[in-house]
Structure formats: C-alpha cells, structure tokens
Amino acid sequence: xxxxxxxxxxxxxxxxxxxxxxxxxxxxxxxxxxxxxxxxxxxxxxxxxxxxxxxxxxxxxxxxxxxxxxxxxxxxxxxxxxxxxxxxxxxxxxxxxxxxxxxxxxxxxxxxxxxxxxxxxxxxxxxxxxxxxxxxxxxxxxxxxxxxxxxxxxxxxxxxxxxxxxxxxxxxxxxxxxxxxxxxxxxxxxxxxxxxxxxxxxxxxx
Length: 206
Description:
The protein is of the alpha/beta class. Helix content is 34%, strand content 17%. It contains seven helices and nine strands; from the N terminus they run βαβββββαβααββααα. The chain has a seven-stranded mixed β-sheet with strand order 5-2-1-6-7-9-8, sandwiched between helices. The protein has a two-stranded antiparallel sheet with strand order 3-4. The mean pLDDT is 96.
C-alpha cells in the first residue's frame, strides 16, 4: 500500500502534519512491518517549498504514478490549486476517483477538485459553499455538499482547512493501517485532551 502525498509550492504544512507524522513513524500501526510507503509525488522532481518554508523533494513524478486498489492520493492545501500548471494533477485525481481509487483532499485542494467536476456527484465539503461556487463557476455539486469539518463519500475524503485533525482521522480509518480502537482513542485524545483517551490509546496497542 502506498500513500502518494502530492507536493506543490506553498503546501499547507499543518493540514497534513498529523498524517505525515503518523504514517511515516508507523508508531500506531496494527502491523508496523506491513508493506507500506509514504511517497512524495511532484509535477517534476524539483524541490518545492511549503508555506512554512520546508523543502520537499519529490520521490517520483505524477506521470510515473501507478495506483493499486489500496493506494491513496493525498492532496494538501496550497495557494496554487487555481493555477493552470496544477490542472493535470487535478485531472489525475478526478480520473483516479472515477476508476475507484482513494483520494483525500483538504482546503484549497477541494476547490481544485470542484473546478474539474470531481465533486459534482460525490459527497464532499470544502472551506465554504459560497466560496466554492464563486471560485468554480461550472461547479454543480451543491446538492452533495455537506457543511461538516470532514466528509467521506465512498472513495473520496474532503475537509475544510480548519479540520486537519478530522481529516487525518477519516484518512486513517480509510487506510485501515490502525485498529479501529486505536484510531478512535487517538482522535479523542487530540480532540478533548482528556487523560482517559491516552490510556485507551495505549491499551489499544496491546
């Protein structure tokens, strides 16, 4: 199983921080030795710089990406999803969804998906419905919009940029790399900061 993190300039570090840390470290994986990779995919192999000034060096280019049924394409927020240069990335994500592959997008990436029609027939959320309609004149997915922090609709997960925790929780559940009890305790611990969920998290690993 591979998770392909699409890295573009001005990537929003905080929106994928939980996921990248947990998937890279494997510290709560049900099977820490499972065949799993977190790979950075770029338009080119050139380094990109995140909004926080972190340099990301792609492991592969998007045109070399071949998804298998368990893989996931992860689209973080960025200031550049409305630029023509990223159109091929969005079309790749739309086509991956049409073929039944898993895609997760947060913040500006959801607006990008809307711009290529990927949200018209799928349950989704975004930062704001009004902004989505204003930014994407051809968007026809209003009936499928849900005003929630994060939404899973079959093989698609979307989230507002204010919900990186909920986004991460939905992605981790979709990937099934953690036990369900682990995912629940992890989410509740970060959401409530209550000690009981730390003990639940530890217990879930035994």
